[in-house]
Write a sequence for this structure.
């Protein structure tokens, strides 16, 4: 197999460490694998895909040599299907549902999906055409997976769509938040370009409240999709958090995707706090930036961690150490204000809480010191609560309340999708679910507005 | 997007893909499901006298673990009364007026019987008729199917009888179980056929069970030959289509049948002269939905080539198909191995060494690295090494600059004959 993980980290050429770790299938591999697909009827892989990609169909098209058709089948159901080919937890979704799990081994659906979409990227294909303009305008706030997906579907339905994106480029998490060696930025930007080609206007560097006011948007558009995702990592609320060498994992990863790679981490000792997928990303980025030792500290156990299994495996192969039942208590700096040590405390698990996970509690007197140079916080993300409130939307701790059928918020003109509605027992955090929710907001908007189209027509 | 509509001898359909007369077109329910899935037309399973079938009926031949490389059947024509079929044809045509419905017919070689069935099926609105002169089993014993299709005079006579009564286009479906299919094809044309379709299935025995010693399939311990179809028969069918397409006396459209499983197969048949194609085995293996890629792949292929209508490709390769005597004897290609791509399985070497012209050497370079090299002077350009090579791009067949002007066998013979004439003249 040609897609094993990299074992070698170069200290001379850091950029090399950030090249995509997994190589794509060769034409021969894609031919063999696509011909292995049974082309099941009512296939469980389709059911298991949150966006309902017709997987047997796109695989058959690879086998028949119809790569354009294959890419179209994928992207039709999932406007960020090229990214999802790389970042989806496929063993929990399509590949986990493949009937061949019970017979030989499942089809490498993610890799085949990447093969077809890579072909489309390489051959500069334009896969869709905008629908005939219906005279209605929709504003999409946030150009991440949910926003792009919503905008794409709305454009196909004939709406004039404007995306307001705070960052320099659209694509959201796929552009800025997923490590380059899993998802190169160009893949996400190709998806953005596909949406732009449908006439969707993307206003980048445009922040709501600063560059344009919510009232203005509500007044000028027939509907609004709120897909702003989540914000930075919250404070640990321990001493020493302002020392030099303490980072926010989201920003840390983003810098590896947007700036020249820093050589400041070579030979350093890094502690990452948290054990979700972002923590893994921060840890594996640290390894690739040349850190000598990288530890993930988690106050619970492997059992409770939220990182996907394949992410966990990936980090282990990168020699990331995992310290379970360990919580940070204090970050200690040197005389120059740089991180020097991390004081930790051992934890034990109590009874399961409301979320079913066992709650951790500190063990008195078990404090110990770790020698570290860098502390990266990856304990979740804060919410854009002010923004949500500026639209006057009901929310629970920053999770926008929606009708899960229509994705309509407390303002009937405003729909919401993606991470902004994830949490509090609502929704899921995967890119692929955000894409599906984006599609659904588009259909809900069309359902709500189609009568006015007939009136204006 | 390219225009995929075809017009085959006056029968129009939204795309070139018809379901062949076979189990998939046995009922209105099936044909309507097929049209919903995207099939452009259907040749309704052969109508005729009430038929008794046997159990079992089908068998398939796999190849190295791949299922259904070839398919064998001993099923007979429709197992339902004519009235039921006619009613369902009527209903289906009404629901899908733009799709082609062709009735496949088989009756005894009797003029009145043909007139009667033609009238009855045309009354319910079919777009055309296909005469089943090909079914190789069961019906042949009763003087129908292949039994009549193997006799050019019977093909001609029956076609003529049908044409006397028919108002819609008549397609004659030919059996491949004959030495030269162009003979029966010409008979059909002489009988007035508007089109011909080929091939019907090839006489076959799928296998023998080496434990029970029964045939596969068997009916209570006995077997009989069936009809072979599926991907394995494609080259045979393609040749027969091509032979008819290039024959100046067979100047009617051809509906291509035989192992067509994907859009590429359809393109090949159409390039070789088919005006449309019929499919059965692939649908039986995977369901009607396979037509989606057949349509999409064909459409993307035409778009990429900048061709606006699928009808433009019909017959484009026919002129490139000829007799051996017209091939250039001075044309030369040789094999060249790309050692940076080669994975050193040595399959090319042993194929050449044992079974061809002993011109691929196994060598070792100064660094001890093994490599393969073709002695081009000894290479006859047979293609065998590139055929057995498992690695894309490891062996190229390279065209050599021609040292002598093109010369075919026929030209050579003509020159020799002229030379002899001159000698004779000179001797006088």
């Amino acid at each position: 197999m040609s897609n094993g993980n990299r074992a070698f980290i170069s200290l001379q050429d850091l950029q090399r460490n950030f090249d995509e770790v997994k190589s794509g299938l060769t034409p021969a591999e894609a031919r063999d694998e696509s011909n292995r697909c049974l082309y099941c009827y009512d296939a469980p892989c389709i059911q298991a895909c949150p966006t309902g990609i017709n997987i047997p169909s796109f695989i058959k098209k690879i086998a028949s040599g119809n790569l354009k058709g294959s890419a179209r089948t994928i992207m039709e159901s999932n406007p960020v299907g090229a990214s999802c080919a790389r970042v989806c937890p496929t063993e929990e979704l399509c590949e986990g549902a493949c009937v061949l799990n019970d017979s030989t081994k499942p089809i490498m659906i993610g890799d085949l999906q990447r093969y077809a979409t890579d072909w489309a990227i390489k051959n500069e294909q334009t896969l869709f055409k905008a629908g005939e303009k219906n005279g209605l305008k929709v504003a999409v706030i946030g150009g991440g997976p949910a926003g792009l997906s919503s905008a794409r579907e709305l454009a196909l339905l004939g709406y004039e769509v404007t995306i307001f994106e705070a960052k320099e480029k659209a694509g959201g998490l796929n552009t800025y938040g997923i490590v380059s060696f899993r998802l190169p930025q160009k893949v996400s930007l190709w998806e953005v370009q596909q949406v732009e080609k449908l006439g969707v206007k993307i206003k980048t560097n445009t922040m709501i409240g600063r560059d344009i006011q919510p009232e203005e948007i509500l007044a000028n558009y027939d509907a609004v999709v709120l897909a702003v995702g989540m914000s930075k990592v919250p404070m640990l609320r321990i001493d020493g958090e302002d020392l030099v060498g303490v980072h926010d994992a989201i920003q840390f990863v983003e810098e590896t995707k947007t700036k020249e790679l820093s050589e400041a981490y070579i030979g350093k000792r890094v502690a990452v706090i948290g054990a979700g997928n972002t923590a893994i990303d921060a840890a594996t980025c640290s390894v690739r930036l040349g850190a000598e030792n990288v530890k993930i500290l988690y106050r619970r156990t492997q059992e409770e961690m939220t990182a996907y299994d394949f992410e966990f495996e990936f980090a282990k192969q990168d020699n990331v150490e995992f310290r379970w039942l360990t919580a940070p208590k204090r970050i200690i700096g040197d005389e120059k204000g740089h991180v020097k040590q991390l004081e930790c405390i051992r934890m034990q698990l109590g009874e399961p809480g409301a979320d079913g996970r066992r709650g951790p509690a500190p063990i008195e007197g078990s404090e110990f010191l770790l020698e570290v140079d860098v502390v990266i916080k990856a304990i979740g993300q804060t919410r854009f609560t002010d923004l949500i409130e500026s639209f006057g939307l009901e929310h629970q701790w920053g999770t926008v309340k929606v009708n899960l059928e229509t994705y309509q918020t407390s303002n009937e003109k405003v729909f919401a999708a993606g991470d902004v509605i994830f949490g509090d027992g609502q929704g899921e955090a995967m890119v692929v679910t955000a894409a599906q929710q984006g599609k659904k907001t588009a259909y809900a908007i069309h359902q709500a507005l189609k009568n006015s189209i007939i009136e204006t027509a | 997007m390219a225009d995929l509509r075809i017009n085959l001898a006056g029968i129009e359909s939204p795309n070139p893909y018809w379901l062949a007369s076979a189990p998939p077109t046995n009922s209105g329910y099936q044909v309507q499901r097929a049209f919903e899935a995207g099939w452009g037309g259907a040749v309704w399973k052969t109508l005729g006298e009430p038929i008794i079938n046997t159990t079992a009926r089908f068998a398939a031949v796999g190849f190295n673990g791949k299922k259904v490389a070839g398919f064998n059947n001993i099923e007979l024509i429709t197992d339902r009364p004519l009235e039921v079929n006619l009613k369902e044809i009527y209903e289906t045509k009404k629901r899908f007026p733009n799709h082609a419905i062709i009735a496949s017919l088989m009756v005894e070689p009797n003029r009145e019987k043909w007139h009667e069935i033609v009238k009855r099926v045309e009354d319910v609105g079919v777009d055309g008729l296909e005469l089943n002169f090909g079914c190789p089993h069961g019906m042949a014993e009763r003087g129908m199917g292949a039994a009549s299709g193997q006799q050019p005079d019977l093909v001609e006579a029956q076609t003529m009888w049908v044409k006397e009564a028919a108002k819609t286009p008549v397609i004659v479906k030919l059996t491949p179980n004959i030495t030269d299919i162009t003979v029966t094809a010409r008979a059909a044309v002489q009988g007035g056929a508007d089109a011909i379709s080929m091939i019907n299935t090839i006489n076959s025995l799928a296998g023998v069970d080496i434990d029970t010693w029964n045939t596969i399939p068997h009916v209570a311990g006995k077997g009989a030959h069936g009809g072979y179809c599926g991907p394995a028969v494609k080259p045979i069918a393609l040749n027969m289509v091509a032979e008819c397409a290039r024959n100046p006396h067979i100047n009617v459209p051809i509906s291509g049948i035989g192992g067509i499983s994907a859009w590429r197969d359809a393109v090949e048949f159409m390039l070789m002269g088919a005006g449309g194609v019929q499919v059965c085995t692939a649908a039986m293996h995977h369901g009607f939905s396979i037509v989606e890629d057949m349509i999409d792949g064909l459409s993307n292929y035409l778009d990429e080539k900048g061709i606006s209508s699928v009808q433009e490709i019909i017959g484009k390769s026919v002129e490139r198909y000829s007799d051996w005597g017209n091939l250039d004897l001075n044309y030369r290609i040789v094999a060249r191995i790309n050692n940076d791509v080669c994975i050193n399985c040595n399959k090319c070497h042993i194929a050449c060494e044992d079974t061809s012209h002993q011109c691929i050497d196994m060598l070792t370079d100064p660094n001890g690295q093994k490599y393969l090299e073709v002695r081009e002077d000894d290479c006859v350009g047979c293609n065998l090494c590139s055929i057995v090579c498992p690695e894309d791009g490891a062996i190229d067949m390279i065209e050599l600059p021609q040292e002598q002007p093109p010369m075919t066998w026929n030209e050579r013979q003509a020159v020799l004959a002229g030379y002899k004439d001159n000698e004779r003249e000179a001797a006088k």
User: Anything to note?
Assistant: Chain A has three domains: 23-122, 137-231+383-456, 246-377. The mean pLDDT of chain A is 94. The longest strand of chain A covers residues 339-352.
